[in-house]
Amino acid sequence: MKLSFDEMVVKIKEKTGLSDEQILNRIHKKSEELVGLVSKEGAAHIIANELGVDLLQDMHGACLIKDIKDIAAGMRSVDVVGKVQAIYEVREFQSQKGSGKVGSFLLADKTGVIRTTCWNAKTDDLKRVNVGDVVAVKNVYARENNGRVEIHVNDRSGLEVNPEGVIVELPVSPNPQGFQSASSLAVRKRLADITSDDLFVEVVGTVVQVFDPHFFEICPQCNKRARPRQETFACDEHGTVAPAYSCVLNLVLDDGSDNIRAVFFREQAAVVLGKSVDDLMLTRASRDALDALKGELMGQMLKVSAKVSKNHMFNRLELVARTVVRDPDPDEELRFLQERKQASQITPSQM
Ligand SMILES: [Zn+2]
User: Fold this and answer.
1) CA angle 35, 37, 38 (to 5 degrees)
2) pTM value?
3) Residue 45: which region, alpha, beta or left (left: phi > 0; alpha: psi -120 to 50)?
4) Cα of 264 to ligand 1 centre, how many Å?
């Protein structure tokens, strides 16, 4: 994605009609102004920006740099340049192939925002990234996850932080006034800020630990627990029944501030595992299918609206999910982060 110095001068000349001498003079002056801070290529980038010449824009044809809105699932060898809007912590996970690491961030350009997931060794690069940094990722692949496209950075990909002279302009942030949290009852919280006084909260976190789902028999008429009785099962109210099944799934969510155990029953467990309720109940007898589902869940982001519950035995707070969204919409998360940032910038005297 790099242009040589001479190519940059040619581009600036084409777009502005200035002479070589005028352009080189400006670059020379800029280099002297910023002595020791930029290379001559960096100075040429700055001059191009001052003159309104978008060097990157012109490279879209020749290179693989894509506007985020144009990235489609299945694309390989994609290059993207954007500004980092949010970073989610790197997590280690265990799978059948051994241990691995995954972390992600939201990358925005003037056309959109996309979740960018780094795997294994590439998570080391993430440690150097801050919100607001310009990041260029190269040779990444795009795939769909629950109806949304995301890009994945692996060992064959490049990740460059604040490449010299590259400026990313974002559209003015959308007015957050109309934006509301998914559940009006639930207050959006960081995990570290949840207290036993909270009744309902909404959190966004990454799955860092998954326990075996537990299946149990229920009465198909009232959905209450059905207990074994002789050869079959019985409900207190409806007597002997051919049982249906329910499921409870425990996992640990982490949002970078803290982690918490979250409990998901039947419908919510199915959403979390990306299955219909019926399909989930069919997997109950298959150890392999359950292990595969658990493996896919590690590193997933979940947005959970939950009741806060005190576990007295372990003296800790837990979440009991009421609704859950797997892979929350990056656009919506972005609006939420902007809303919170703006809210935190209001001083008490303005309130
Ligand atoms: Zn019953």
Assistant:
1) 95
2) 0.48
3) alpha
4) 22
Residue 78 lies in a domain: yes
Among 44, 60, 76, the domain boundary falls at 60
Q: Is the dihedral of CA 4, 5, 8, 10 positive or negative?
A: negative
CA distance 340 to 18: 45
Q: Is residue 177 one of the residues assigned to a domain?
A: no
Measured in angstroms, how far is the CA atom of residue 24 from the centroid of ligand 1? 84
Give the environment of ion ligand 1: residues with CB less than 5 A: 219, 221-222, 235, 237-238
Could you read off the pLDDT tens digit of each residue along the chain, which spans 351 residues? 467 888 889 888 888 889 999 999 999 998 888 776 677 888 888 888 788 777 765 454 444 678 898 888 888 888 899 998 888 878 888 877 788 899 999 998 888 889 999 999 999 998 889 888 899 999 899 998 877 889 999 888 989 998 877 878 776 543 333 223 333 456 888 899 999 888 889 998 888 888 989 998 999 888 888 988 888 899 988 899 988 889 999 999 888 888 899 999 988 999 999 999 889 998 888 888 888 888 888 888 899 999 898 887 778 899 999 889 988 887 777 777 677 666 655 544 444
